[in-house]
From TrEMBL:
Keywords: Metal-binding. The keyword Metal-binding applies. Residues 36-226 form the Metallo-beta-lactamase domain. It comes from Qipengyuania mesophila. It holds the Pfam family Lactamase_B. This is MBL fold metallo-hydrolase. It comes from the Bacteria.
Length: 309
């Protein structure tokens, strides 16, 4: 991309980290089989400063019960490695799992961050769920709203955020050293890409966002938010590179045009059912992972809009 300053800046950061090992973060992935989500703990080995990306709160839809099995694996890892959590990052408002960020923030501190465009997602879903005026649609449930190209630090390691809309209007990729956490944009090369049919989603925008990510240096490490295996593959996987995606991604490898992608994505999305947990997830995640305020009996309720989606 010729005039894409943010991507240029990200590419330079990645090149510096490729040259100097001490600018590369340590990364641990935690796979949640119930929702096929990968959460990450990323840290600077020199200072032990850490970011927790896309954590999962376990939720059983039938009983409406939350639990902490997945999040506690992260708690254990952070504690046993003596990490200091400075960021809790959400790549977007997830529609398939509830975030455990408030639970982890209570234990470890750190700033809860998401993309600036979350306000558009709050607007759309605030209306759908008929949330009252007490539900602020200004992103104030988060401590930090990232803009495209905004930089940050994880200890001595550089970070930069890229706005990569399409799956939702607010998706961000977070690049830390030479590692890009790309959220729901691309998946493993043999599986393809994220869906673009949720409210506010856009296949054309998704293609452009993905091509933006794939214009980063070829050796950039990519860490994905989900894996569903793929025909012929028996193991879950969540790490790949720009090179592998450009050579082999079944939806967006080099040579696939925007129109071809949009046609494929649109047709495929028509065949996909809504995720099981979309209603509870979105409702809670637009509130920064906090349950709706309890009613006068002290109980929080999740709403289901009937015949509205
Ligand atoms: Fe998602």
């Amino acid at each position: 991309m010729a005039n894409d300053n943010a991507v240029q800046q990200a590419a330079e950061q990645i090149a510096r980290a490729r040259e100097d090992k001490t600018l590369r973060p340590s990364i641990a992935g935690f796979f949640d089989e119930a929702t096929n989500t990968v959460s990450y703990v990323v840290h600077d080995p020199k200072t032990n400063e850490a970011a927790i990306i896309d954590s999962v709160l376990d939720y059983e839809a039938a009983s409406g019960r939350t639990s902490y099995g997945s999040a506690d694996l992260i708690v254990e890892y952070v504690t046993s490695n003596n990490l200091k959590v400075s960021w809790l990052i959400e790549t977007h408002a997830h529609a398939d799992h509830i975030s455990a960020a408030p639970y982890l923030q209570e234990k470890f501190g750190g700033k809860l961050a998401i993309g600036r465009e979350i306000v558009r997602v709050q607007e759309v879903f605030g209306k759908l769920f008929n949330a009252g005026t007490d539900f602020e649609r200004d992103g104030s449930q988060f401590d930090k709203l990232f803009e495209d190209g905004e930089t940050f630090r994880l200890g001595e390691i550089e970070g930069i955020a890229l706005h990569v809309p399409g799956h939702t209007p607010a998706d961000m990729a977070f690049i830390i050293g030479d590692a890009a956490f790309v959220g729901d944009t691309i998946f493993m090369p043999d599986f393809g890409t994220a869906r673009a049919d949720f409210p506010g989603g856009d296949a054309r925008q998704l293609f452009r966002s993905i091509r933006r990510l794939l214009s980063l240096p070829k050796e950039t490490r990519l860490f994905l938010c989900h894996d569903y295996k793929a025909p012929g593959r028996d193991e879950y996987a969540w790490e790949t590179t720009v090179r592998q995606q450009r050579e082999g991604n079944v939806h967006v490898k080099d040579g696939v045009t925007e129109d071809e992608f949009v046609e494929m994505r649109t047709a495929r999305d028509k065949t996909l059912a809504m995720p099981n947990l979309i209603m509870p997830s979105v409702q809670v995640n637009i509130r920064g992972g906090r349950l709706p305020a309890p009613e006068d009996n002290g109980v929080s309720y999740i709403k289901i809009p009937v015949n509205a989606v």
